[in-house]
Design brief:
- The complex is a heterodimer of chains A (100) and B (485).
- Chain A has 100 residues and is mainly alpha-helical.
- In chain A, 36% of the residues lie in helices and 4% in strands.
- Chain A is built from four helices and two strands; from the N terminus they run H-H-H-H-E-E.
- Chain A has a two-stranded antiparallel sheet.
- Chain A is flat and about 50 Å long.
- Chain A starts with 6 loop residues before the first helix and ends in a 10-residue tail after the last strand.
- Chain B has a single domain (6-232, 256-297, 384-480), classed as Amidase signature (AS) domain (Amidase signature (AS) enzymes, Alpha-Beta Complex), CATH 3.90.1300.
- Chain B has helices spanning 6-15, 21-34, 46-61, 104-111, 154-161, 178-184, 218-228, 247-250, 272-287, 299-318, 336-347, 350-363, 369-392, 415-419, 426-431, 460-480, and strands spanning 41-44, 73-77, 115-120, 167-172, 187-190, 210-215, 258-262, 291-295, 395-399, 435-442, 448-454.
- In chain B, helix 2 runs antiparallel to helix 3, helix 10 (299-318) crosses helix 12 (350-363) and helix 10 (299-318) packs across helix 13.
- Chain B starts with 5 loop residues before the first helix and ends in a 5-residue tail after the last helix.
- Classes of the chains: A mainly alpha (100), B alpha/beta (485).
- Chains A and B meet through helix 1, helix 2 and helix 3 of A and helix 10, helix 11, helix 12, helix 13 and helix 14 of B.
Chain lengths: 100, 485
C-alpha cells in the first residue's frame, strides 16, 4: 500500500503545530497516522463530484446583537491565571529571540 | 409512566421539605469517598456543595422553591468551566487552571437548585473512548474495575453507575456521552446540536461538540437535559426553538412509533452479544405496538472516516490556543516560539498530539481537498442518508458500542482500533442529530449493553419516547424474570 504520510511530512506537520517529537515518537506517529489515513482512504476514493460540502449541521450565519456595552470578565481574575504578567498585561519571552 | 428516577425523587423530596439537600449532598460525598479507587473525579467540591445545600434548605424553609433540581448532586465533566474551581480537561497543560467564569450549563444547573459535587475524569481534551488518555490516571468501570468505563466522559458515567451522584454532565463529540453510558450501564444522551449552549465548554471540535446528561433513568436524563437546554445569547450556534414539555414522551408509549433498525450497524463490525440485545430491543418495541423495520443508512458507517478527519481538523485549530501565554502551563524558554513549542510538547499527551497532527495534515496545502474537503462532502451524504431514513421512520435504533466494556490497555497501542469504538455513534454528531443510549440487559461476561436511539434534528420527544419504551420493556422483562442477568 502506498505510504499516505511520510516521516518528513510528520516532522513538518509537527513543526506547524508547534510540537517537538523525539525520534521514537516520529517513527511511531508516522505509522499510526498512516494507519488512520489508510482507513480514511475510503473517503479519499469516493467520487463526490457535485456534492456540496457541509461544514456545520445547520446553516449558520452571523448573529448580531444591539451595540450595548456588557460586562466583561474581571481583569485581575483573568490575569491571575496567566503564567506571567506585568503592568496588567500578559508577559511573554522576546518574540525575536533577543532581550528587549 | 417509567420510573421517575433517583434525581427526580431527591428534588421532589427536597422541594416538599421532606428531605434536606445537605443530607443528599453528604450521601453523595460519602459515596464518592468510598469509591475513590475508581478514579471518577479529578476534583471534589465538598465545601462549596455543602454551602449550596445549606442555602437550598434555608430557601425551602423560607417557603421558596429552589427549582426542578433542588438539592440534586451533579457530577460535571472536567472540560466544563466552573468559576474558581479547577477545570483541567484531564490535561497537564490546564492543570490548576481556575476559570474566571461559569459555563452556561453550570449557571442553569445552579439556577435550578442542582449542586455540583465535583469535576469528573475524562480522556484528555475529550479525545478517546476509554478514559485511559487522562493525564491523571484512568477511571475504572464500576461494573468491573478491570475494565474501562468507556470515554471520553468515563468519569461522569462511572460516577452515576457507582451511585456517587444521581446525575452527571458529559460532552459528546463522537459518542463521548453515549458510549461510556453504554459501557457502564446507565443512560447517556446527546442533544440536537445547538440545543445546549457550548459557552464554557472547552472546545474540541466545535461543529460536533454538544453537552448532555448522564443519569440512571431516561426520565432523570430528560430532567437534566430540560434544565440546561435552551437558547443562549453567549453561544451563537445555540438554537432558538423551545425545548418543550417531555412528559408525554416519557410515558414511553410505543404504539404507532415507527422504528428503523440500521442495517449497516448490525453486521460483522458488531459483536454478536451486542447485536442480540439490539434485536431483543427491537422485538420489545414491536410487541409494545411499534412498527419496526430495517433501513439502510450507508453513510452511518463510512461517516467514521470523515469524522476522523473533521474532528482532528477542528481540534488542531481549537487547541492552538494552548500556547503558554494566557493560562495553564508555561515551560520557560528564551523566545516566544520556543516557549510555545516547549509548553505544548510537555503539556499535551500522545493522543492529543496525534490528533493535532492529523488535523494539521488534513488541513495542509496539497491535502486539504483530498481529506478535509472530501470529509465535508461525506457529511452531506450522512445528512441525506438520514433524511431518507427519517421519511419512513420516527427513530432509528442501533448498538451504542460495537462491544461491551474492554480491558485496560487492549486498544491503547493501536489508535485506529480505539477509533473504531466510535463506529455506531459518530454519524449523529456529523448530522447534529440527537441520540441516547439506554441500558438493555447484558452481553459477554454479564457486562452492560446499551441500545442507541437516534432521531432527526429537534426530534428529542420521539427519541425520549422510544427510550422510555425500551426502559419500560426492560423493566417488564426483569420482573418476568426472562432477561439475561
Amino acid at each position: 500500500m502506498a505510504e499516505r504520510i511520510s516521516r518528513d511530512e510528520v516532522a513538518h506537520v509537527a513543526r506547524l503545530a508547534r510540537l517537538r517529537l523525539s525520534e521514537e515518537e516520529l517513527e511511531r506517529f508516522t505509522l499510526q497516522l498512516g494507519d488512520v489515513l489508510n482507513h480514511a482512504a475510503d473517503v479519499a476514493a469516493l467520487d463526490l463530484e457535485g456534492v456540496a460540502a457541509t461544514s456545520h449541521p445547520y446553516a449558520v450565519g452571523n448573529v448580531l446583537r444591539e451595540d450595548v456595552p456588557g460586562g466583561g470578565l474581571d481583569r485581575s481574575e483573568v490575569l491571575a491565571q496567566a503564567p506571567e504578567t506585568e503592568a496588567g498585561q500578559f508577559r511573554v519571552p522576546p518574540v525575536r529571540g533577543e532581550a528587549p | 409512566m417509567t420510573s421517575a428516577g433517583p434525581a427526580a425523587a431527591i428534588a421532589a423530596a427536597v422541594r416538599r421539605g421532606e428531605r434536606s439537600a445537605v443530607e443528599a449532598v453528604e450521601e453523595s460525598l460519602a459515596a464518592i469517598a468510598a469509591g475513590e479507587e475508581l478514579g471518577a473525579f479529578n476534583t471534589v467540591t465538598a465545601e462549596s456543595a455543602l454551602q449550596r445545600a445549606h442555602r437550598i434548605d434555608r430557601a425551602v424553609a423560607a417557603g421558596e422553591d429552589p427549582g426542578c433540581l433542588a438539592g440534586v448532586p451533579v457530577a460535571v465533566k472536567d472540560n466544563i468551566c466552573t468559576r474558581g474551581v479547577p477545570t483541567t480537561c484531564s490535561s497537564r497543560i490546564l492543570e490548576g487552571w481556575r476559570p474566571p467564569y461559569d459555563a452556561t450549563v453550570i449557571r442553569r444547573l445552579n439556577a435550578a437548585g442542582g449542586i455540583v459535587v465535583g469535576k469528573t475524569n475524562m480522556d484528555e481534551f475529550a479525545m478517546g473512548s476509554s478514559t485511559e488518555n487522562s493525564a491523571f490516571g484512568p477511571t475504572r468501570n464500576p461494573c468491573d474495575p478491570a475494565r474501562v468505563p468507556g470515554g471520553s466522559s468515563g468519569g461522569s458515567a462511572a460516577a452515576v453507575a457507582a451511585g456517587m451522584s444521581p446525575l452527571a454532565l458529559g460532552s459528546d463529540t463522537g459518542g463521548s456521552i453515549r458510549q461510556p453510558a453504554a459501557l457502564c450501564g446507565v443512560v447517556g444522551m446527546k442533544p440536537t446540536y445547538g440545543r445546549v449552549s457550548r459557552y464554557g465548554l472547552v472546545a474540541f471540535a466545535s461543529s460536533l461538540d454538544q453537552i448532555g446528561p448522564i443519569a440512571a433513568t431516561v426520565a432523570d436524563a430528560a430532567l437534566l437535559y430540560s434544565a440546561v437546554a435552551g437558547h443562549d445569547p453567549l453561544d451563537s450556534t445555540s438554537i432558538p426553538e423551545e425545548v418543550g414539555d417531555l412528559s408525554d414522551a416519557l410515558a414511553g408509549e410505543a404504539a404507532g412509533l415507527r422504528v428503523g433498525i440500521v442495517a449497516e450497524l448490525s453486521g460483522e463490525d458488531i459483536d454478536g452479544d451486542v447485536s442480540a440485545r439490539v434485536t431483543a430491543a427491537a422485538q420489545s418495541l414491536a410487541s409494545a405496538g411499534a412498527e419496526v423495520g430495517e433501513v439502510s443508512v450507508p453513510a452511518a458507517v463510512f461517516g467514521l472516516s470523515a469524522y476522523f478527519l473533521i474532528a482532528p481538523a477542528e481540534a488542531s485549530s481549537n487547541l492552538a490556543r494552548y500556547d503558554g501565554v494566557r493560562y495553564g502551563l508555561r515551560v520557560p524558554a528564551a523566545t516566544a516560539a520556543d516557549m510555545n513549542a516547549a509548553t505544548r510538547t510537555a503539556g499535551f499527551g500522545a493522543e492529543v498530539k496525534r490528533r493535532i497532527m492529523l488535523g494539521t495534515f488534513a488541513l495542509s496545502a496539497g491535502y486539504y481537498d483530498a481529506y478535509y474537503g472530501k470529509a465535508q462532502k461525506v457529511r452531506t451524504l450522512v445528512l441525506e442518508d438520514f433524511a431518507a431514513a427519517y421519511e419512513r421512520f420516527d427513530v432509528l435504533i442501533a448498538p451504542t458500542s460495537p462491544t461491551v466494556a474492554f480491558g485496560f490497555g487492549e486498544r491503547t497501542a493501536d489508535p485506529l482500533a480505539m477509533y473504531l469504538s466510535d463506529v455506531c455513534t459518530v454519524a449523529s454528531n456529523l448530522a447534529g442529530h440527537p441520540a441516547v443510549s439506554v441500558p438493555f440487559g447484558s452481553g459477554a461476561g454479564g457486562l452492560p449493553v446499551g441500545v442507541q436511539v437516534m432521531a432527526p434534528a429537534l426530534g428529542e420527544a420521539a427519541m425520549f419516547r422510544a427510550a422510555a419504551a425500551l426502559e419500560r420493556a426492560m423493566a417488564d422483562r426483569r420482573r418476568a424474570g426472562s432477561a439475561s442477568p
